[in-house]
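Q: Predict the assembly, please.
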Amino acid sequence: MSTQWQTFKSKVEHCLCPPGDGVFTVNTAKERKAALRMKLYGQEDNVDTLWRESLDTLSKSEHKAVTLGISSDCGGGILRGANWGPLFLRSTLIDQQPQAKSFDLGDVRVIPHLLHDKYLNDATISNCQKALYDNPNSEYYVSPLSITEDVCNSFYATFKDKGIFGIGGDHSISYPLTKAYLKAKREQGKRTAIIHFDAHTDLLVERLGIDLCFGSWCTHILEFLPAPHHLIQFGIRSSGKPKQHWESTFGVKQHWAHEIIERGAPAIAAEVIAQLKADNVDELYVSFDIDALDEEFASATGTPEGNGLTPQHALDILVALADEFPITGADMMEIAPFTDSSLVGQSSSDTTLREGAKISAFLINAMNRT
Ligand SMILES: [Mn+2]
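A: Predicted assembly structure:
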């Protein structure tokens, strides 16, 4: 066994926990966590040991997609609750999309009051290291964004032919996921692009003085892309500034929701494929904020928005892109199952989870095919 693997495994054993356990609770959601354990392991007890043992099978896993849950919504702020995404989306995937299989690495151990270690003083870091690792001088990070980046860096250094499928969490989580991915691919000499579905641009420089949050993560990954227009955004409709502003200020490429609805997904996809080919892009990362979908399909999220895409719009674009380019990294963000705003009929969180699982399953299968 290589040193790289040992370092990675030790990091996972310290910084992660079994799938679905990322939200630290004593009694809340006990039954839901137990139900997922039954689905994953066929038993409720001894799951920590089974999960640890499973890590040794990662290198031999037939699946290229490796699921990582990050139950953090500390980077959100309008309406929180995306911390429950990893538990609920996994259960929905197993029940409704059983053909979408991945290796499940587990969940990041999240201290819900923390975002990134750079915002903490030494005393807090040490205290949290004591809480998480039983060692006030631990070598490991304590905040969800910092842990995620560290684990992903180590993952890509160890497994060059596998990719992470991240489940959030609020969208700030995509900062460490994409940063680690983009840096690893750059080192491999691969040209990449980020396909970003969202109702919002996520292109603030900072929000209330915080540079890494759900509204600003895109701004801070541009430097790791071959060029800013390799960030291609779909479904934008809730923005204080027009498309022209974002494209000329940041150099990104946008396809707003009304353009996709008016011109049709195939026409937009054809344009994007031509752009990606002209730029000699080798591989794609897909970051999916569930609020890209219209609130009719995705109301259980922090900022539901009307006039959005149907799931079919999104899938038509993704299918067309996946036919031309390998998707080697992806994430599904901002599903907040407990923020159910429906008054009658089927619960909005059921609908949101169902549509989120459909798109997640497509992404997982696409990653496995590469
Ligand atoms: Mn977003």
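The pocket of manganese (II) ion is lined by residues 171, 198, 200, 202, 214, 289 (CB under 6 Å). The mean pLDDT is 96.
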